[in-house]
Amino acid sequence: MKYLITGITGFAGPHLAKLLLDEGHEVHGVVRTANGREMDLVDVMTVKEIESIRFHYVDLKDYMGLQKVLLENFDGVFHLAAQSHPPTSFLEPVMTWNDNVSATMNLITLLEGKETKLMFCSTSEVYGDTGKDVGLLGVDSKLLPSNPYGASKAAIDLYLQERFNNQKVRGFITRAFSHTGPRRGKIFSISSDAYQIAKMELGLQEKVLKIGNLQTERVVIDVRDCVNAYYKLMQTDNSNGNVYNVCGEEVHKMQYYTDCLIEASSLNYDDVEQRIHKPFYRDIDIQVQIGDVSDLKRDTDWQPEIPLSQTMSDLLHYWISKLK
């Protein structure tokens, strides 16, 4: 099978590409500019694996350029590309909307009438803080985003459901909840802690950990488990036209994940001062998010397999290696 990944140089993209190659598929990737950034994938892939991928250089907002890429017949498209940082979406709502809505409209329009199966990577952020009132979030829960990023994803989420219902496009929607692991950007929670702890281990930062709100609650899984769910849904005909939550089932306060990272390091827990850093607080935060994954488990045999202790250790050592 031949698959195209948008956002292949992002966080989840390389992990998905590696999985597809391991399963014997042909992998193509979209890169916005021809500046050699695709070699960043060596963080999680071998040079041989990277050289087996065919890269297409185009900005998804360029309709004609994207049309040229899609002249090739792909069995499936994994659409991961997005401006996915909620705090940035408050600062740059127009950029967020252009990257997440305008670009995705181009892709959807160009896939209309084709047999290519589209996976649209939505997000749990479309639910906003609905979870504090309803508890377990089902795919039919109210969409009430709390930030421009979530709003941009909700717009395409709803539009694509209409396209599915009217049989204009084949595919499915995933709403991934919190996931982390190697390559997660340091501007995101958990990885920010890992980055700082790695600097402490290397003597590049004093043992003062700048933290945000660690009292909010999240279910967190490994990025490699997350992309495995994407892959399994792409392989089954049962997923066509459906929406799926992708998440774990154990909820913890964010403090728990910070503690796990310190424990995964060589640092003494009591020697690390945790200090509130106001810029790390969201303008509008979400108290709790727990998703119902019964639909995902019904249509696939997916379940998270990587223990969080390994995820945290791998993330920390990714940053140590990167900083070296």
Largest sheet composition: 7 strands, parallel
Assigned CATH superfamily: NAD(P)-binding Rossmann-like Domain
How large, in whole angstroms, is the Cα Rg?
Answer: 19 Å
Examine the secondary-structure arrangement and name the CATH architecture.
Answer: 3-Layer(aba) Sandwich
Shape: globular
Structure description:
- This protein is α/β, with parallel strands linked by helices and 324 residues long.
- It has one domain (2-182, 221-247, 288-306): Rossmann fold (3-Layer(aba) Sandwich).
- It is 39% helix and 19% strand.
- It has twelve helices and 15 strands.
- The protein has helices at 13-22, 47-51, 63-69, 86-91, 93-111, 131-134, 148-165, 191-201, 223-235, 254-264, 294-299, 308-323; strands spanning 2-6, 26-31, 54-57, 76-79, 117-123, 136-137, 170-176, 179-180, 208-211, 217-219, 221-222, 243-246, 251-253, 273-276, 288-291.
- A seven-stranded parallel sheet has the order 3-2-1-4-5-7-12, with helices on both faces.
- Strand 1 (2-6), helix 1 (13-22) and strand 2 (26-31) form a beta-alpha-beta unit.
- Helix 10 (254-264) crosses helix 12.
- The two termini are 38 Å apart.
- The relative contact order is 0.14.
